[in-house]
Amino acid sequence: CQVMEFGSAGADRGLLKEFEAIIAVVIGGALLTGGYGSVIGAALGALIFGVVQQGLFFANVESSLFRVFLGVILLFAVVLNTYIRRMITGER
User: Fold this and answer.
1) Overall number of domains in the chain
2) What is the pTM of this model?
3) Which phi-psi region, left, alpha or beta, contains residue 84 (left: φ > 0; alpha: ψ -120 to 50)?
4) Is 35 helix (H, G, I), strand (E, B) or coil?
5) Assigned domain for 75 exists
6) DSSP string, 8-21
7) DSSP code, position 38
8) C-alpha pair distances (Å), 55 with each of 48, 58, 82
9) Of 70, 90, 91, which Cα lies nearest the Cα of 26?
10) DSSP 29
11) What is the mean pLDDT of residues 26-41?
12) Own/partner pairs for 40-43, CB < 8 Å, 24+ apart?
């Protein structure tokens, strides 16, 4: 543990993790526009995101393509969430 060894931690430890956090929450069913989401859904989304991330790592996917893949996952999750919400509410 960095804190135990050096007595401090790097201030940039979680830098650029915002995109991954947003993707995990959207996969869990939260809407980007707000108004809907749950803690359980966010936890499940984070679990799914972690499994996909490890799968990409073990499949030897190039690290530069990882961010592109994250964008595709986010786009897919938003489209799927929108489609499901419209089906439930009866909108077109």
Assistant:
1) 1
2) 0.72
3) alpha
4) coil
5) yes
6) S--TTTTTT-HHHH
7) -
8) 11, 5, 26
9) 70
10) T
11) 86
12) none
